[in-house]
Design goal:
It is built from 15 helices and 2 strands. It is mostly helical.
């Protein structure tokens, strides 16, 4: 009786040209997805740049190195952003014709006018007694002299709030706000940074669609147990990468910026953060953390290939700590805070990798070969 072949693809065949045609089809689908998502990220690029800038902006505000800023586009609708794009390009005519203002538009303009008026004025608190003395010196006939029978402590004197209004105050406040925001050093830098952030975001947001199409091309050539490995370890890899990136953005960045900006205050120097350099830094460091958090899967992979066994990982723990510390020093900036914040999670992930190798040990290929020959 002839044995049944275990090859699932015995009855299937595709020529080299068919494989190329299939690959071209899925790559084209992936490209269309990237283009569609990138269109939306370009429209919302201002919010994406603001998200990337948020760690450095918050750090500058905490150190008193920059003024608070109000994002006028935070509540803008999709059509309003599209109108801004069309007006900037000069291609469409959205919002160019004078129309009768609705009640909502009038209310919005009133709020903007009040905000503008608030920016032109400051509140000054002075003792009421000093105000009366000054008024008496200016107009003695209208304001009698101030007479006090007892001495009142300075902290107990009644104060009067005076609102002083002048357009110079708004200029002063704007200069304070802009003095330590990220800067651009040439004409095209802001535009190129905007496009860079939008395209990178488009690639990131469309990555699930890209991976899906790649998987549709690759999965047909895999056995069932191989697909199961991809489902398990692929999901784990994505989860670890996201944890690493989020950990870097919301935990590591505040520590790094707090440490580095403290030296500016200590040395009494004025920091000027270049926008393009910060964007590159803010994109690359989370990427490094996401890749480094793949350590447990790398350990399991090497264990599966019988390159390292589980007991070797345990016995060489000291050497692993040295290697992890060295890699953390290379992958992070020069400050010790970021190095330690990468090193400590990797030490925990190293122990997790040992546990995974122990939980699912690799089979010995020589023992398997002996069983088959017997």
């Amino acid at each position: 009786m002839a044995l049944r072949s275990k090859d699932l693809f015995e009855d299937t065949s595709m020529s080299f040209g068919d494989h190329l045609e299939e690959l071209r089809y899925y790559l084209f689908r992936s490209l269309i997805g990237v283009i569609l998502v990138s269109i939306f990220t370009l429209i919302y690029g201002n919010q994406l740049v603001g998200l990337v800038r948020s760690p450095i902006d918050r750090a500058l505000i905490r150190h008193g190195l920059a003024g608070q800023q109000v994002d006028d586009l935070g509540d803008a609708t999709f059509l309003e952003r599209l109108s801004e794009w069309s007006n900037a390009i000069g291609t469409f005519g959205i919002g160019q014709e004078e129309e009768e203002k609705t009640a909502e538009e009038v209310t919005t303009e009133g709020k903007k006018a009040r905000a503008s008026l608030t920016g032109r004025q400051i509140d000054v608190q002075i003792p009421a007694e000093d105000l009366l003395v000054a008024l008496h010196e200016v107009a003695p006939a209208q304001f009698p002299p101030v007479t006090t029978s007892e001495v009142v402590p300075e902290q107990e004197k009644a104060e009067v709030t005076l609102r002083i209004r002048a357009p110079e105050f708004m200029i002063f406040r704007d200069n304070v706000k802009k003095s330590n925001r990220p800067v651009t050093l040439n004409v095209q830098e802001a535009f190129l940074t905007y496009v860079k952030v939008a395209l990178v975001a488009g690639l990131v947001f469309s990555s699930p669609w890209i991976f899906y199409n790649i998987w549709m091309f690759v999965a047909v050539g895999l056995y069932a147990h191989e697909r199961r490995f991809v489902y398990v370890y692929g999901t784990m890899s994505l989860f670890l990468f996201l944890i690493g990136a989020v950990f870097c953005f919301y935990v590591v960045f505040p520590f790094i910026l707090e440490f580095l900006l403290s030296f500016n205050k200590w040395l009494d120097v004025q920091p000027q953060i270049r926008l393009s350099e910060w964007v590159s830094f803010a994109v690359m460091l989370p990427l490094m953390f996401g890749i480094s958090f793949q350590l447990p899967l790398a350990m399991v992979f090497l264990n599966r290939l019988n390159i390292f066994e589980e007991h070797v990982y345990r016995e060489q723990r000291r050497m692993a700590i040295l290697v992890i510390a060295t890699l953390s020093m290379i992958l992070t900036p020069s400050d010790p805070a970021s190095m330690l914040l990468m090193m400590f999670p990797l030490l925990f992930l190293y122990e997790l990798g040992i546990y995974l190798c122990k939980l699912n040990p690799a089979a010995n290929p020589f023992e398997r070969e002996g069983e088959l020959t017997a």
